[in-house]
Design a protein that fits this description.
517 residues; alpha+beta; Dodecin subunit-like; FAD/NAD(P)-binding domain; 3 domains; 5-stranded parallel beta sheet; 22 strands; 29% helix; 24% strand
Length: 517
């Protein structure tokens, strides 16, 4: 029994039979097993767009000693352990930290201030139909974190997380995700799949012995201050009572300002970091398809994506962020009186509209020309988010056609949009700080030269949650400086971004605890 790696060029609408026939023919075998290792779309030649597929063929007809190289697995050793660990936040970082620890035999309590994904979906639907915003159950807060209502992208530029990435992908596939996420170069789950997957993962966590508490908010820490060395957290104070802990992992996400401020008041050190501010733009998906594929649709493909960057001389960098093909723009504010937007899409990416964040990278210390403390950074961002709410008179999205923005105008008659709460005409040059609006305009002008018709699109709302403006002072495993048993991980730590890198950050925090026990 031998094996051979085969590289294939396949049509965008290939099926398993075509893949098998071509792979076996190229491997010079008539039978055997076939495993896809990698698959990516090659659209450099728009007249010959195709899938590049790398596969391994295993067959008794191949006479060599080659064996398929399998990724190294994250080892989970289950044994009874008497330590209790509380994990705060059920996004990817918090969940996967809690899940690994529960599988390893610890007593684990996962605390989530929001609600179960099924109830969360009802609360979001109610808000979008004109109901009241639930500050504990919305697009930002609730089971699965902000990523549950997103495109569910699983790409990550993080290095040295092979085992963690494999564990995350395997967990998703076991919970109903399509197997293609293991080999696609740009895998995504879609929000419709994520809602089902998150529920399945909860069931697996509970079956492993974990305890999950919803609608419960951490309000403080009980510290042992008698130690001459690092501080130790003895218990977590919540709005429903105290929970004793041996270790505490906090994975707050990037939107929980209240949690940040509580941690700072408890002695957790944070520092200012770079992040990005901007808006979300929306176009007909057919326009993006035409630019990327030279046709409005293509058999076998869902919807075209784009990635844009621009850095002019003496300007802040501008770039596209979290592009959602075939998606919609959603009201993602977690708190009353503020107004921000985000993008999401289902697995089919079939809405007919494309949206993306177009943002400008900033550092508040540089922009303000002074050293800010972390609370000032959070307050600055909160003020900007409330400014957009005041400009709209609520949760409708301030909007302007890109072409009008570039020409220094507002848009009186706004087109239809996927945004569910309506649009109001907005002056983004007045709403955004001058240095941001200037860099945004020059970036959008550049992007319009790269994608024909891009300036016909619509800018809507404030995109302010690309990442947190502050970063916890912690080690690589997530343990906070000056604390013996407190970890901060995921997007809320300032060290991770996106589903996979956040989940890996949580798994590493769990691994550090395992190394001590």
């Amino acid at each position: 029994m031998g094996a051979r790696i085969i590289d294939l060029r396949l049509s965008t609408f290939y099926d398993k039979s075509e893949l098998r026939d071509k792979a076996f023919r190229k491997a010079h075998v008539r039978s055997g097993e076939l495993f896809i290792e990698k698959q990516s779309l090659d659209a450099r030649d728009k007249n010959a767009i195709h899938w590049k597929v790398r596969a391994t063929v295993i067959s008794p007809e191949i006479n060599n000693d080659f064996e398929r190289e399998l990724p190294e697995k994250l080892i989970i050793e289950n044994k009874k352990r008497d330590k209790h660990i509380a994990v705060v936040g059920s996004g990817p970082a918090g969940f996967f930290a809690a899940y690994r620890l529960a599988l390893s035999g610890f007593k684990v309590t996962l605390i989530e201030q929001g609600k179960e994904v099924e109830i969360r979906k009802d609360d979001i639907d109610n808000f979008e139909k004109g109901g009241e915003l639930n500050e504990r159950s919305n697009y930002s807060f609730g089971e699965g974190g902000a990523g549950t209502f997103s495109d569910g992208k699983l790409t990550s530029r993080s290095k040295h997380i092979g085992q963690e990435r494999g564990f995350i992908m395997d967990s998703y596939i076991e919970s109903g995700a399509p197997e293609e996420i293991a080999y696609l170069s740009k895998p995504h789950l879609g929000s419709d799949n994520l809602k089902k997957i998150v529920k399945k993962l909860r069931e697996k966590f509970i079956a492993a012995g974990g305890k999950m508490l919803f609608d419960i908010q951490m309000t403080g820490l009980h510290l042992d201050n008698d130690s001459l060395d690092d501080k130790k957290v003895n218990a977590v104070e919540t709005d429903k009572g105290k929970i004793d802990v041996d270790y505490l992992i906090v994975a707050p996400g990037h939107s929980s300002y209240m949690t940040y401020k509580m941690l700072i008041s408890s002695g957790v050190r944070f520092a200012i970091k770079s992040f990005a501010i901007g808006t979300r733009v929306e176009h007909p998906q057919a326009l993006i398809n035409s630019s990327q594929w030279d046709r409005e649709s293509m058999r076998g493909l869902k919807a075209a994506e784009y990635k844009l960057t621009f850095k002019g001389e003496n300007l802040l960098p501008s770039y596209s962020f979290c592009m959602c093909p075939g998606g919609k723009v959603v009201p993602s504010t977690p708190t009353k009186g503020s107004n921000i937007v985000n993008g999401m899409s289902d697995y089919s990416r079939a809405s007919g509209t494309a949206n993306s964040g177009i943002v400008v990278g900033i550092n508040l210390n540089d922009m303000m020309r002074r050293e800010l403390d972390p609370i000032e950074a959070l307050d600055w961002l909160d003020t900007l988010e409330r400014k957009f709410y005041d400009a709209a008179g609520g949760y409708a999205a301030p909007a302007v056609k890109i072409k009008d923005f570039l020409n220094g105008r507002t848009t009186k008659k706004l087109p239809e949009s996927s945004f569910p709460l309506g649009l109001v005409s907005g002056d983004f040059r007045a709403l955004l700080p001058k240095v941001i609006s200037k860099s945004l305009a020059l970036g959008l002008n550049n992007f319009s030269s790269k994608i024909h018709g891009y300036d016909q699109g619509l800018m809507l709302g404030l995109e302010s949650k690309t990442s947190s403006p502050i970063r916890a002072e912690r080690d690589k495993a997530g343990k906070c400086d000056g604390f013996a048993n407190l970890y901060i991980c995921g997007e809320g730590s300032g060290y991770a971004g996106g589903i996979v890198s956040s989940g890996a950050d949580g798994l590493k925090a769990a691994g550090d605890i395992l190394s001590k026990e």
